[in-house]
């Protein structure tokens, strides 16, 4: 891992605007500064732009205005009607999606080794050794040669996390990774993420699971209407919000009648 | 009216020879037509209008006209256009290959489109360059998805190949009609011919259903 | 090539071609009326709980789907008069042969769309206290009908194209008139090209309509 000066931001999002078509505005001037080692959980009402924010940071979306820097260097910027994305920077970020998005025609191990082999020129045996080691860490050693269709949802999601880790990302993005899972499978995926958190992996995630958010986050951002409404430690934002809109949202989520 | 199916035994050899011609023609045109269809399918997905539009026009033409006319056109007109004699076999092969190319290009195009957007997102998140995306993620899935429909196309071609009897090629249908005319026993002979086609095509359609189920389960992940 | 195109040979003889087109369209429309109605009845038989109804219906469908249409048509024209001692005019024979073929293909289309109605919808119907007949009429059929429209249209246009096969047994359709004209005028290129365009002019708009319907359904399903 390249050393990042402790005072610099890992991700700096400045005045980010993002919409679809002429009329739908999802992000309206969003500013976030994420420091190295932080674990940021983004919460908020649906349609508030949480997932879009993560997709922008992954470099999957065009933006209309603003910029994103990564590790102190330019990463994404809007220039006129075009979006410039530095693909070298993008390679330092990993992402796990709600619907697993494993490659169904490849085995678990092939899913893990595809990118290291084809993008980074790692030899097959080295990539496979590394892959097996990560799978073992996640309790999936027996599944290396299985196809995704033979796995449970929880297993698929753990494989997806393992696949992203193969590239040694400096930031992990988790977009509602437990939302599609049966309740009894949520814990096994959350355990893997907590394991990463305990090892100091910087991460930014969107989740509806407030209990998990409190456990994993070092910082919680409440996003609504395409802007940051409240930003602070989990005890504040989840426990004792300062903003009225945050309080309303948290009350509704925990079914506390005002 | 007395039915006498025993006359079929007398003509078993001729029918077998006709079937052999039908099968040879089908296999030949399936192989060449699938290759052609793959190329046309890619051409139709091209961003270059000069490649895309002629490919689309080709497909619409072959799917929008009766195969019998395509066959007649190639049989009667192509020799005039090219100024060379074409054997029955050559005309039939060209016609059925072009037809197979048109229908399989649709199959390939549909299966290319069926590879979901989320798969592309995953490719970007893994930093896979375009060439790796296409070669290792999109094409393999598209081909797997296409397999059941391609098999259906083969069955269609096997059936359509009976049309070559209309231009005098001695396939199963042609032999059957000849025997039926010469013996004045159309019921026995034509029923037998229909049953031979059925016995070959029916198990293949069952196979398609089974493979389709398996592929969909596998690719649903 | 040493062949000079002469479209005049064809344009002077458009009359017979239009007569042929009228026969072709007549065959197509009549066969579609049979196929759309009888196909639905046959689909219900295929889905029947009683093997005595289901098995013969399935055999009928599979036989038509697994044999060449040209074999069916030749068989029909030669064998039906001998077997049943009925002698009908060629166009009626053509309509029946094409209609039975289309019935089998449409039955399969109806069956697939009926079975594609999610089981949960029937469960919801039971939970709402609908009778079995109400569940079929109000839940299954409306969805199945809508889903089957694109396939029925595709099959219908397929029959339009297959109708060219009746030329082989002497029905004076577009294909037959075209072939006759090509032989009489020694102008195969012009004639076959123009009748191919006739067929295309009918098929193409319908296939575009099917494509549009499917795209709209795809959007609605999202």
Automatic annotation (TrEMBL), chain A:
Gene3D superfamilies: P-loop containing nucleotide triphosphate hydrolases. GO terms for molecular function: ABC-type amino acid transporter activity; ATP binding; ATP hydrolysis activity. Pfam families: ABC_tran. InterPro entries: AAA+_ATPase, ABC_ATPase_HisP-typ, ABC_transporter-like_ATP-bd, ABC_transporter-like_CS, MetN_ABC_transporter-like, P-loop_NTPase. It is a peripheral membrane protein. Belongs to the ABC transporter superfamily. PANTHER family: AMINO ACID IMPORT ATP-BINDING PROTEIN, GLUTAMATE_ASPARTATE IMPORT ATP-BINDING PROTEIN GLTL. This is ABC transporter ATP-binding protein. It comes from Gemmobacter lanyuensis.
Automatic annotation (TrEMBL), chain C:
It is a multi-pass membrane protein. It comes from the Bacteria. PROSITE patterns: ABC_TM1 (PS50928). GO terms for molecular function: transmembrane transporter activity. InterPro entries: AA_ABC_transptr_permease_3TM, ArtM/GltK/GlnP/TcyL/YhdX-like, MetI-like, MetI-like_sf. One of its GO terms (cellular component) is ATP-binding cassette (ABC) transporter complex. The chain crosses the membrane at residues 20-47, 59-78, 84-105, 151-172, 192-213. Keywords: Amino-acid transport, Cell membrane, Membrane, Transmembrane, Transmembrane helix, Transport. Residues 21-210 form the ABC transmembrane type-1 domain. It is found in: Cell inner membrane; Cell membrane. GO terms for biological process: amino acid transport. Part of the binding-protein-dependent transport system for glutamine; probably responsible for the translocation of the substrate across the membrane. Belongs to the binding-protein-dependent transport system permease family. HisMQ subfamily. NCBIfam families: HEQRo_perm_3TM (TIGR01726). This is ABC transporter permease. The lineage of its organism: Bacteria, Pseudomonadati, Pseudomonadota, Alphaproteobacteria, Rhodobacterales.
């Amino acid at each position: 891992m390249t050393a990042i000066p402790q005072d610099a931001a890992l991700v700096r999002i400045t005045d980010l605007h993002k919409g679809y078509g002429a009329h739908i505005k999802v992000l309206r001037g969003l500013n976030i500064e994420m420091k190295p080692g932080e674990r940021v959980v983004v919460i908020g009402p649906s349609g508030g732009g949480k997932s879009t924010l993560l997709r922008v940071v992954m470099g999957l979306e065009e933006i209309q205005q603003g910029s994103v820097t990564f590790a102190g260097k330019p990463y994404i910027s809007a220039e006129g009607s075009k979006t410039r994305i530095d693909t070298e920077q993008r390679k330092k970020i990993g992402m796990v999606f709600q619907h697993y998005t494993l490659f169904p025609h490849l085995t678990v191990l092939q899913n893990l080794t595809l990118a290291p082999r084809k993008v980074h020129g790692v030899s097959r045996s080295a990539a496979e050794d590394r892959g097996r080691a990560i799978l073992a860490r996640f309790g999936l050693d027996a599944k290396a040669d299985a196809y995704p269709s033979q796995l449970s949802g929880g297993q698929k999601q753990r494989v997806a996390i393992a696949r992203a880790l193969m590239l040694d990302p400096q930031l992990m993005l988790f977009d509602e990774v437990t939302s599609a899972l049966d309740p009894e499978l949520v814990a096994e995926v959350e355990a893997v993420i907590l394991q990463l958190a305990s090892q100091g992996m910087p991460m930014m995630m969107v989740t509806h699971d407030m209990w998990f958010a409190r456990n994993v986050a070092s910082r919680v951002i409440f996003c609504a209407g395409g802007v940051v409404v409240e930003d602070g430690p989990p005890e504040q934002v989840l426990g004792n919000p300062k903003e009225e809109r945050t309080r309303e949202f948290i009350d509704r989520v925990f079914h506390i009648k005002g | 009216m007395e039915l006498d199916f025993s006359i079929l035994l007398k003509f078993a050899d001729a029918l077998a020879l006709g079937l052999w011609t039908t099968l040879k023609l089908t296999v030949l045109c399936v192989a060449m037509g699938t290759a052609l269809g793959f190329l046309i399918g890619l051409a139709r997905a091209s961003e270059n209008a000069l490649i895309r539009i002629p490919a689309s026009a080709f497909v619409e033409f072959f799917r929008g006209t009766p195969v019998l006319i395509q066959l007649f056109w190639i049989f009667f007109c192509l020799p005039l256009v090219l100024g060379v004699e074409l054997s029955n076999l050559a005309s039939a092969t060209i016609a059925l290959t072009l037809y197979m190319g048109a229908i399989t290009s649709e199959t390939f195009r549909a299966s290319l489109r069926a590879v979901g957007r989320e798969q592309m997102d995953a490719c970007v998140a893994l930093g896979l360059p375009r060439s790796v995306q296409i070669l290792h993620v999109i094409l393999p899935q598209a081909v797997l998805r296409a397999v059941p429909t391609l098999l259906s196309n083969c069955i269609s071609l096997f059936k359509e190949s009976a049309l070559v009897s209309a231009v005098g090629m001695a396939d199963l249908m042609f032999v059957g009609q000849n025997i039926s005319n010469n013996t004045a026993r159309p019921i026995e002979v034509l029923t037998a011919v229909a049953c031979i086609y059925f016995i070959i095509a029916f198990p293949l359609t069952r196979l398609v259903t089974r493979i389709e189920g398996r592929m969909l389960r596998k690719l649903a992940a | 090539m040493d062949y000079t195109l002469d479209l005049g040979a064809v344009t002077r003889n458009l009359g017979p071609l239009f007569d042929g087109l009228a026969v072709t369209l007549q065959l197509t429309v009549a066969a579609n009326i049979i196929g759309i109605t009888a196909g639905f009845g046959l689909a219900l038989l295929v889905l029947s709980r009683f093997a005595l109804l289901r098995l013969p219906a399935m055999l009928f469908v599979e036989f038509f789907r697994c044999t060449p249409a040209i074999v069916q048509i030749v068989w029909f024209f030669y064998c039906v008069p001998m077997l049943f001692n009925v002698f009908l005019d060629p166009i009626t024979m053509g309509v029946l042969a094409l209609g039975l073929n289309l019935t089998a293909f449409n039955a399969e289309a109806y069956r697939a769309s009926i079975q594609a109605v999610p089981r949960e919808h029937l469960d919801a119907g039971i939970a709402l206290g609908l009778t079995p007949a109400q569940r079929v009429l109000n839940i299954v059929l409306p969805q199945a009908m809508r889903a089957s429209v694109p396939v029925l249209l595709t099959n219908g246009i397929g029959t339009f194209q297959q109708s060219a096969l009746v030329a082989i047994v002497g029905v004076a359709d577009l294909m037959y008139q075209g072939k006759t004209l090509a032989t009489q005028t020694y102008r195969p290129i012009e004639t076959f090209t123009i009748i191919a365009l006739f067929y295309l002019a009918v098929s193409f708009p319908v296939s575009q309509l099917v494509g549009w319907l499917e795209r709209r359904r795809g959007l609605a399903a999202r």
